[in-house]
Protein 1
Amino acid sequence: MSERSCLTFPMIVLALGMVLGATGCGRAGSQPGKAEQSVVVYCSADKEFAELIFKAYEAKSGVTVRPLYDTEETKTAGLTARLVAEKARPKADVFWSSDTSRAVALVGQDLAASYVSPAAEGIPARYKDPSGRWTGFGARIRVILYNTARVTAADAPRSIADFINPRWKGRFAIANPHFGTTSFQMAALFSKWGDAKAAAFLQQLKENGAVIAAGNADVKDRVADGRVDAGILDEDDAVVAVRDKKPVAIAIPDQEGADALGTPLMPNVAMLIQGAPNREQGQRFIDFLVSKEAERILAESDAAQYPLHADVAGPTLLPPLNRIRVMEVDYVDVARRLSLMDDAVKSVFGL
Amino acid sequence: MNSVDGRRRHLARILPFGILLAAAASPIAALLTRGAALGQIDLSSIPGTLAFALSAAAVSATIGSAVGAVIGTVDVMARRLTIVMSVTLMAAPPAFWWIGLTRLPFGIGSLSGPASAALVTGVTLAPVTLLLVLAASREIPATAYEAARLFLKPRRRIVAVLFPLLRPAVLAGFLLTAILLLGESEIPFLFGFRTSMTDIITRFSRTFDVAETVPLVLPLIGTVCALGLAMWKPLFTVLFPQSAGERGVILRPASRPIALITALLPVVVLLSLAGYAWATAGGQQALTRRVATWLPTAAISVTEPVLSAMVSVGLAVLAVYPARRVPAARPLVVAGLLLFCVPAGIVAIGWIALAQHVSGFSVAPGIAYVSRTVGLCALGFAIAYSRLPRTLDDAARLVPMSPLRRAWLFGLPLLAPSLAATAALAAATMLADRDVASLLLPPGGSRLMLNLYLLSANAPTAVVGAAALLVVAAGVVVVALAGGLPLILLTRSRG
C-alpha cells in the first residue's frame, strides 16, 4: 500500500465535512440556484393544513414553496421573533400567520411591505390593512371543547367566564397565553375589557387552577382523554377531536344575552416582508393565499376555517359565521396590547 | 530525551485534540461570553428541573441496574435479542416512545405531572444504566463471584457482592441519565410542567435574542458540568477497567420470574410501536401516497446523521490517535464527554449566537451535530484503544513504516468495531434530535423527527402513526449505515 492511500481517511473526513457544511450554510437571504422559481414562506399555521395550500399553489404555478414552520409550543411568537432578528437581512418573502395580533404587531416594527392584492378585493375592509401591509383570510373562532363522558351538554361551560367559577376548579385547560391564538384571545380581552379587568381575569383563572397546556393541540388531547373536563382552544383543533371520534363536543362561548362578549374571530394573515429577497414571487403567492380558491381549501379541509369572501361556503361541522356572535375588536389595538398581556401572564402565571 | 522534551512532545500530541475540542466548544463559549458580559443568572427553574431529572434518573438506574444485573449474571433466553431490543429505546427520545404508548386503545395517555413524567422517562432511559452495568459485569472476577454463588444466599450475594462490584456503573448510569434529562424539553411539554430547557426554548423562541436566553442557559450548563464532574470517575472506572482479559461472571440458567424482568424494556418498545401501528390501521391507501411525499425528507434525514457521524468519528480519530498514549489526554476526554452532555438545543442556540456575531451566516444542523458529538466519539476511541493489549501497539511500532501508514494498517482496523458502534450511537442521537433541526434548518428544510412533531398537532392519527414508523425504519437504516461504513472503510486497509 502506498503512502498516498494512507491519506484516504483524512481526505474522506475532509470531503464529508465540506459536504456537511455546504448543506444549509450560507449567507442570509441567499437563495438556491433557481431563485426565481421559489418562494420562502414563514408559516405558523399547522403544517397539516398549510401543506394543502402549498401543494395547490405549486401545482398551479410551478413555483416551489419553501416553508419554515413554528413548533406547537412556540406558535407564531417563534416566527415573529425570528423575523425581527432577521430584519436587516430578511430570508422570508411572505409571513403566513395563524395569529392575527402577532402579525399585525410586526407592522409597527417596519417589517411589513405594502401590497394590495387584487385577489383580496372581496374581503371586508375590517380584515385588512388599507395600505396592504397585512391581509386577513380564512378565519377561525375560539371555542370550548368539553369531554362528554365527564360533562353533560346541560352542564357544559357557556362562557369563558365560567372557568373562574369554583365548579370548574382545576378541571380546565388553556394553552400557554404567550403563544398563538391564546395570546390573541387574551390580548383581545385587554382591548375589550381594559387592562385591569383583563389582568384580574387572568389572576382568577390562575386561582381557579387553570392547567396551562403546551399548545392548543395539547388542550385538545387533554380534554379528549379526560385529563381535564374542558378547555378553550381553536375550532380546527376541536374539529380534529370530533373527526377522530373522541368523546367530546364543541360549545361556542359567550353567545347568550344581549350584551354577550362574543367569541374572537381570528383571520389568518398574509404579509409581504419588507426587503423580501423575492418580492415578486411573494406577491404572487399572496394573491393565491388570499384568494377564494385557498379559502375554499381551508374551509373544506379539517382546518374548518371560515372564508372571509362572502360567496365561499363555510365549514360544515360548525354553524355559519352569520349565526355566531363575534367579539368586536380592533386588530391593531389587540396587537398593541400584546406586550401588556405578556407582562401580565408572566406576573400571574410565572411563565 | 530530557523531561522538557518529553513534555513538549506530549503537548504536541494532544494539541490537535485540544484544538478540536476548542472548536467544538466555540458555540458554548460564545454563550458563556455573552453571559459573563450580562452578569445575570436566572435560577428559578433549576430546582424543579433537578427534582424531575434526579427522580427520573433514580427510576432509570433502578430498572436499568436490575435488568442489567440479571442479563449480566444469568443466562436468559434470547439474551442478545433482549439487549438489542432494550437498547433500541435509546435510539429515539422518551417523547417518541411515550406518544406511541398513548396511541394504544387502552387509554394510557391520561398521565400528567412531573411524577408521571419521571416514571415514563425513567423507563425509556433505563438502557443507559443497563449498558453500563452489563459492561461492569463483564469485569467481575469469575472466581470470586462463583465462590459467592456457592457460599452465599442470593439476597446476601446481591447486597454484599454484586451491588458493590456494580456500584460505579449504577452511579454513573444514574448521573448520566440525570444529565441527559436536564436537556429534555418535549416530555415536560407533554406532561404539562416547566423545566429549564422548556423555559430556554420558549424564551428564545419568543425573542430570538441570545442575550435574553443566556441567564437561563448558564445555570443549566453549570448543573450539567457539576453532575458531569461527579460522573466521570465512576464512569471511567467502568469504561476503562484496570484489568484486562477477565471473562466476567459465568452465566447460569435463570428461573422464569427472574428472566421475566428482562422482558420489561423490550415490551415497552413493542407496545409503543404497536401503538403507532394501531394508529395507522385502516388508512393504508391514503398513507401510501402520503409516505411517498416524505421520501425526500427521509433521504436527507438518513444521509445527514450518517455523514455527520462519519465526520465526527473521523475528526475524533485524527485528533485523538496521536494522543492515545499520552496520560494528559484523559482530562480532554472528560471535557469531550461534558461537551456531549450539553443539551442539543443549547448547542444550536450557541451556534446562532456565533452566526449572529459573524453577521448573517446561517449554520447547517450537521455542523451543530458534529460539534456536539465529537467529544462522544473521542471517548469511544479512547475506550476502544484502552481495551487493546498495549503489546500490539508496541509491536506495530517495530515495523519500519511511517506513523500514518502504521495507524492505517494496524491501529485503526483493530479499533474498527468500537468506532462503528460509536458512529452508530452518534448518528442515532442526531436522527432523534428535534431541537437543532427546529432552530437551525433553513426554510424548506425538513427532517423526519421534526415532521413527526409538527404533524402530531393536528394530523389524523393514521398519518402520525405512519410518520413515526418511518422514523423507526430510518433509524434502522441510519444505525446500519453509520455502523457499517467505518467497518468497511477501516477493515479494507488490512488487505
Note: Chain A touches chain B through 75 residues (CB under 8 Å).
Protein 2
Amino acid sequence: MLSEFRLPALGADMDEGTVVQWNVAPGDAVTRGQVVVVVETDKGAIDVEIFEDGVVREIVVAPGTKVPVGTVLARLETQAPSTAPTLAPAPVGTGPGEGPGVSPVLVPESGVERAGERASAARPRISPAARVRARELGVDVGSLAGSGPGGAITIEDVQKAGPAPRPSRDKAGEGARESAGAGERAGGMREAIAAAMSRSKREIPHYYLSLSTDVTAAVEWLAARNASVPVTERLLFAALLIKAVALSCVDFKGFSGFYREGRYEESPLVHVGVAVAIRGGGLVAPAIMDTAQKPLPVLMEDFRQLVTRARAGRLRASELAAPSIILTSLGEAAVDAVFPIIQPPQVAIVGAGAVGPRPWVVDGRVEPRQVIALSLAADHRVTDGRLGAQFLARIAERVAAPDRL
Amino acid sequence: MKREELAAKLLSLVTGIAPDVDPATVIPGINFRDQFDFDSMDTLNFAIELHREFGVEVPEAEYSRLASLDKCVAYLSDKVR
C-alpha cells in the first residue's frame, strides 16, 4: 500500500520547517528509524526519521521549500497495513500541525537509531550559524571537511574556505556575544518559545513547590568518583539530577506524561528532556530516551552527546518530540531557585538552582553544607500539591544518595 | 610548542566545542563563561579535548585554571611539549 510521510510536529512550538536535504531517492528501501530528511527549523537542523519500513516512491517536497507541519514530504510503498509501531504520542501543536494529519513521531529503539546514524554520517554536519555564514560567503558546505565535534563544520571552517576577510579585532570585541546567524536563529526560536509558553500560561493551572536539600554527600561522592576515573568518564552533577527525576517518575504517576483533549495519559517510558541553553539566545529541551533504565555512565554520555548536538544544530525529530517531563537547571547562572513553566502537552517540569555552601542546621547546630534548591511546576488538572511535594521530596532523597542512582 | 602556536591550537579546540562561536571574536583575557556562556558541560568537553590532543589530564579541582584563553596558555605551556 502507499503511505504518506509527513513533516512531524516537534513539540508544541514548531509549526513549519524548511527541507534542506534528502538522504534518500525514489526507489530506495528505508527502514523504520532511518534519518531520511534534514529539516531546518527554529531549533536548528533536525534529522527526521521515517516511522515505517518501505520503499520510497516519490519525493514530494524539494530542498529549499518551507512547509507547515503535517505536509506530505514523500510517499512510500509499504508492506501490509502498518502494524502499530512503538510510537511516542504525537505532540499536539498549536499551528496547522494539530489534528489527525500529523505523522506519528518515532521513538527509536537502540538498534534502529544506529541505522539512522549511518545514514546521516555520509553528509556534512554543520551548525546553523556556520550554515548561515556559508550562505553569506557563498561557500559550498559539501566541499568542506569539518573540524568540530563529530566532524561538524564550524564557522572557522567556513571562513577559511570563504573569500571574505575576517572581521577586524576592534569590531570583534564589540560583538563578542554575537555570532553569524545566531541572531536569525534566536529570533525564530524566540517566537517559538513565546508561543509555547503563552499557551502554557493560558491553559495550564500551574502550582509551584520548592525544596532545599543538603547534597554534601553527593557532591563529595561525585568529586571522589571523578578523581578516580579518566576524564572521559567524569560525571556532571546534572547527570545525578536527571537520573533522580527519572526514577522518581517511576515511583509517582502524574508527572511524566501528556495532557491532551481534556485527558491525562502517563508516558509508558520516562523520557527526561533536558533544557539546553543555546548561545546567542533561546533554548531547546531534547530528551534522553528511556532515562530511568540507563546506568549513570550511559546516561552521562547520552547527555553529553545531546548537548553537543543541540548546540551544533543536529537533533533528531524523535528527541524533540519525546520528552515526558523536563529538567531545567539554572545552577550555572548562580540563581538560588527556578520557577519554571510547563511545556505543553507535558504536565510537569523540575527546576534546579545552583549547588553551593549555605548555612544548614545539622543536629541542632548551624554548619556550612552543600545545598541545592529543587523546584517543581506541575499541572493542577492532573496532580495536587500534596502528591507534588512527595514527588519532589523523592527526587531530593535520590540525589542525596547517588550511589543508588 | 610556541606560545602563539599553543594559543591558536587551544582556540580551535574551544571553537570546536562551541561551533557557534566566531574565533575572531574571542578575547584572550576574558573568561569563556563571561564571553559566551561556557558552562560545565563545555568545560568537561574542553578537558576531554585537552586529553585527546595533548595527553594532559586536568583534574576537576583545577578547572578554574582553564577559564580563559590566557589562563589556559599559562597553565598548559609547561605541560605541553
Note: DSSP finds four helices and no strands in chain B.
